[in-house]
């Protein structure tokens, strides 16, 4: 089946980027609430394993995805406990989460190496799937791709248009003021962390349920860190996370195709681009005084309920 | 103040107890192998479950155990990366009393030599390397003979005339494989083209899968690989194209996709060397066997392979086994056009061992 | 009811209590994990934590692994005290290794006592430069140093890869991505007859002493601490936040770079794509385990180094993946962070007063 090279590349880019969308959204919702969670990588890989193991055991794909979300949420709750209740340093706790998640998944996943799990099938949408280029590139994906985009839109609506989202933002901007207004900062942050964990877990499961049918320790390969960079790149706005994710996701795909086409730029230079671009974004964004572009005011600041 | 004192006291007590418990004299100091069992260690670059390279080495290990039963004891460590970690693992094995250590990847070469210097009484066998010492032997397999047969099959069966090749590192072994396959394919199909992607890893299912997909998207309808996982085979199966298994029979992952596979059979060599160790007749040698000694074998042909292609492949295999055919027979030029092999001339082992050039007709350059 | 109350005063032994509790909890949890996996906990733990130390070789390896951890740990401890979160120490280590290695390769075959210092200097400068970037961006543009230094880590690893695959590749190495083996003059001497414990350890101890001196005696150390505790107080005292940021990141970068070149010249002996099993990140755990006291970084570094050895021993003797190291380390850090609460707060049971 020849879909044309462009269409195939676009298709591959979406597949490569979708885990980043999920993880990026997961990081975003936590950061909007003022929580800097550096443990996204650990959450993703745990979700990857959970989803993989569940699918391998014969459960339907939907259950596997839920399992991945639960795994991510569960691990994230450890983070929540430490940071919210025990006032642990968030930076170190996030790192510990990553380490622990990577190690635990390697340990628990050792028995699964070499086994292949059933994959999520791509949807065949009546007319749209058969359009010339866009058909294959945009409309012949597995449901998770569409879910990721829907979630981004949903999160945008939630954060900007809903009352609950407003409260979330308030907590993230100035937790003391929010507390004074009577909102439970701890509870809201906890919910954000759990949700973020679940999203990161789903992002991880995409790797094992769609992208590669195998599980290997450390297979997230730094995507969690990219997701964190993504959030900054997107100025903490959900819809921009999609754009950023697709940009980051396209790098590795383009580099592979470039090689196959005979272009001989060392792949590492291309791989460096997303990180350099993110640094650039960090510089530009932080410098601006524009309110909507700045990081949430209370990001990374520990909130202590009683003094 | 009082409560904290109690807590501290309790903790100190716990710590002391823990210390006492853990510092009991450690069980039998088995540092030097006093037992009469020959202990052989294996260092693997990937997991045994890779269904590829490491899997076959482990089968060799199991063959040694089956053959010598109570006279040997084997240990292995998987997924040891080719860097500083390798040295530590190899040294640990040696210091734990191994009589011999098999290091099964090119990148273990320098660590093996280093450790061999520190442990002159331990024997080392390094796969696919080129550095030897009094206590370091090397061994490898003429995989390129297998690649030749694969190339013939691919050349005949491809409809798009594009063969996708997933390569790991541009070391001579890998380049040999590409060249051999290409020459064979071209000999039966002058229009065939090879597309090569270098993934810089021996084992990374994610990257291998992505590379496989990219090659397929660019028109390849048959895949070859020099990486160790079954991911490309799985992708081939999913996409409905063909592929060749790497280092072991991967038909389980691609029942429709696998045309055949190169099988590395290390068992005969391992059993022989283990025997040498037990009998004390071990010496440092360099072994490079192919179809003739059974170190390279082919998996059963897949159902998609037509009978005439099968016959051709079998004929080639027999010819190589009997020494009538050499995978690198002239006339062949290098990629830059300069002549390499004259008509009828076959490549010598030296050139093959150091091969770092593409043959004429392959596009792209070596990284 | 459980109450968490701030202590009116904290004593030093509270810190020790916290560490002991954390260690005990880690051991208990690890035992449970091992038991769940079907392994006998006590003997397993003994085999992986105690046995590696039973020989000169083992101690030597421990020292070899602890060297970068202690070195970087000290630098990070200083920086963290100042509230500067240098998460990119790994990248600075890699840059240091790369630059130092490049210098060593540049002088390949040339002997002389001055080669080694030049190589070490090259490495430190490389790391310094890599630390200067997030410092500059933070001071000038208020860019978050955590994310910048983290992104730069990936860039550094990729740069190393480019160099090792290309310009610095061993021409006699059959195209394998490795550099030449460094020559004698560019290699650090070993400390023990067996194993790889090398002179870098002496440097590590030296740095710990230096760090302690900075904290206790040098005004700079005090300045950084105050800035870390309260920006307002620092400003009131006339301390420059910018200078603190620069100092913390330049020290962090230079020292991490030094650790990197020491790794390359002492432990590995050549440039390869992967010169560090995340020492830069693990050093963060070391700094926290030491509760940011430079002297305490030495035992903390040795302990964490032991956990690395334990992971490998686990793979060799228990058959579980080496990644189990990360589980131990993660657990230890979790418990450390959890019990750090005990230092500043008291847990009280009883009625509300």
Could you describe the 3D structure shown?
The complex is a heterotrimer of chains A (307), B (367) and C (353). Chain A is an all-alpha fold. Chain A has one domain (3-293): ABC transporter involved in vitamin B12 uptake, BtuC. Chain A is 70% helix and 0% strand. Chain A has twelve helices and no strands. Chain A is globular, with a radius of gyration of 19 Å. The mean pLDDT of chain A is 85. Chain B is of the alpha/beta class and 367 residues long. Chain B folds into two domains: 37-141, Rossmann fold (3-Layer(aba) Sandwich), CATH 3.40.50; 143-256 and 295-353, 3-Layer(aba) Sandwich (Rossmann fold), CATH 3.40.50.2300. Chain B is built from eleven helices and 14 strands. The chains are: A mainly alpha (307), B alpha/beta (367), C mainly alpha (353).
CATH topology of chain C: ABC transporter involved in vitamin B12 uptake, BtuC
Backbone structural class of chain A: mainly alpha
Amino- and carboxy-terminal Cα gap of chain A: 67 Å
3D shape of chain A: globular
Largest sheet: spatial strand order of chain C: 1-2
Helix content of chain A: 55-70%
Features:
heterotrimer, A: 307 residues, mainly alpha, ABC transporter involved in vitamin B12 uptake, BtuC, 70% helix, B: 367 residues, alpha/beta, Rossmann fold, six-stranded parallel β-sheet, six-stranded mixed β-sheet, 14 strands
